[in-house]
Amino acid sequence: MNTMTPSQPVQASEQPPNWCHIQETITMLYLSVCQIKSSMKDSGNSVDQLTQSFTELALHSREVDEHVQNLSDVSEIQAFKHEVSSTAREMQEKINQAITAFQFYDRISQRLEHVSQSLENMSDLMASPLDLNDPSAWQHIQDRVKNSYTMESERLMFEHILRGASVNEALEIYQHHFEEEKQAQNEDDDEVELF
């Protein structure tokens, strides 16, 4: 038989001054809005990159086919080899860009899963009279959300929302640091890693 008693809600006297579950709810909703908006923007950029890469791949493929069809003289073989080599390098670059765009799409899916889980956890907390007014329960959810982030830009956005930044301010901070992370990753990666 379990002799443990359920945790008691924090009494008003134990709560930090000016603490309110309504403000915590608003903060978590703002964070969700930031995650959704940044995901939408990033997914749009990824789709644009994929569209451009595949369009250019199709163009290069057509050019190679035209060169092959027009090749009739043995003396043209050396020039053709040079063109095919150059085109192959361009195609490889576009393939790498497409793979990177797919990797960003995977991150977006993970981010939206985090939003979904966060909203579910918050709903469960709000449905519990014992936890609704317990600052430590809200802190626990916020810690879980923060620990789920894999990118520093997401953690910074989270921190700024908790400090009272607006959605637009937090998104600007996220975008700035996201671009820095992306550039650093591009400089570090000689080859694109598959998932």
- Based on secondary structure, the structural category is mainly alpha
Q: What percentage of the residues does DSSP assign to strands (E)?
A: under 5%
Domain module count = 1
Helical content band? over 70%
Reading the helices and strands in chain order gives HHHHHH
- Most strands sheet: none
The gyration radius over C-alpha positions equals 26 Å
> pLDDT below 50 for ≥5 consecutive residues: which ranges?
1-13, 190-195
**C-alpha end-to-end distance:** 48 Å
Alpha plus pi helix count: 6
**What's the pLDDT, averaged over the residues?**
77
Number of strands: 0
Please tell me what the overall shape is: rod-shaped
Structural features, described:
The protein is mainly alpha-helical. The chain has one domain (21-188). The chain is 78% helix and 0% strand. The chain contains six helices and no strands. It has helices spanning 21-70, 77-127, 129-132, 135-148, 152-162, 167-188.
